[in-house]
Specification:
0% strand
């Protein structure tokens, strides 16, 4: 069974809880959320729980994102070898122009 990347899970959870927090806030602001839930106490409780859960998920997402490598080692080595071959070509071109 393939292993699921923790970064992807944290990104999905961050997106879900962040989106629901914003949606609940706007529904709360318009008064529709209280009508959906039924009472103001339940609406406040749901909003607070969602916001409290968003905080550790945001921290987890930030930690996972900081540990995620931006480039693969093979990409770095390939870019380095291309850069070195260009500098070698330039140095050879300079030497040939000096000899002429």
């Amino acid at each position: 069974m393939p292993e699921i990347d923790k970064y992807i899970i944290s990104k999905i959870l961050f997106f879900i809880f962040g989106s629901t927090t914003v949606i609940i806030f706007f529904l709360f602001y318009t008064g529709a959320f209280v009508n959906i839930v039924g009472s103001i106490e339940a609406a406040i409780t749901i909003y607070c729980i969602n916001t409290v859960l968003l905080i550790p998920i945001t921290i987890w997402y930030a930690i996972e994102r900081s540990h995620k490598p931006k480039y693969k080692e093979s990409d770095i080595l390939e870019a380095y070898s291309e850069m070195m071959s260009r500098t070698d070509d330039e140095s050879v071109a300079k030497e040939t122009t000096k000899q002429q």
